[in-house]
Amino acid sequence: MKIINFSKRFLDDIAEIEKQSFVNPWTKEMLLDSAKNAAVKFKVLIENKTVAGYYIISTSADETEVLDIAVDPKFRKRSFGQAMLADIKKESNNKKSRVIFLEVRQNNNAAINLYKSFGFKEIGVRKKYYKNEDALVLKLINHKESAL
């Protein structure tokens, strides 16, 4: 397993994982627009020369937001989500970010359990964030920076 920067050659695979993972998936255009944004870090997890997952984060001032994260259903339950969260934390540290935020579908128990096992805490609810479903807002204090 390795986590590398996004390249357009991964776009079709990422778009397919998006479709398999989300009710309202990002389009290829949305993914490409994110990759062009200087405030965004877009990384891809590769396993045996195959796209197994990816994440997109944005850091502004001292806060990082997870905009998108997914693992291909064929690769789930193999610690790839944890590996990407660890990489997100590293990228966040590199940007001197104190906190990491994300939203997760309220009924996505597998993702919620993963995030909470990594140290994320629930801080709120966004009503109807996913059209007919609420989102939990989670926050992770970046301990390396919070000690300053």
Automatic annotation (TrEMBL):
<dbReference type="InterPro" id="IPR050680">
    <property type="entry name" value="YpeA/RimI_acetyltransf"/>
</dbReference>
<dbReference type="Pfam" id="PF00583">
    <property type="entry name" value="Acetyltransf_1"/>
</dbReference>
<dbReference type="GO" id="GO:0008999">
    <property type="term" value="F:protein-N-terminal-alanine acetyltransferase activity"/>
</dbReference>
<comment type="similarity">
    <text>Belongs to the acetyltransferase family. RimI subfamily.</text>
</comment>
<keyword id="KW-0012">Acyltransferase</keyword>
<dbReference type="InterPro" id="IPR016181">
    <property type="entry name" value="Acyl_CoA_acyltransferase"/>
</dbReference>
<protein>
    <recommendedName>
        <fullName>[Ribosomal protein bS18]-alanine N-acetyltransferase</fullName>
        <ecNumber>2.3.1.266</ecNumber>
    </recommendedName>
</protein>
<keyword id="KW-0963">Cytoplasm</keyword>
<dbReference type="InterPro" id="IPR006464">
    <property type="entry name" value="AcTrfase_RimI/Ard1"/>
</dbReference>
<feature type="domain" description="N-acetyltransferase">
    <location>
        <begin position="1"/>
        <end position="143"/>
    </location>
</feature>
<dbReference type="InterPro" id="IPR000182">
    <property type="entry name" value="GNAT_dom"/>
</dbReference>
<comment type="function">
    <text>Acetylates the N-terminal alanine of ribosomal protein bS18.</text>
</comment>
<dbReference type="GO" id="GO:0005737">
    <property type="term" value="C:cytoplasm"/>
</dbReference>
<keyword id="KW-0808">Transferase</keyword>
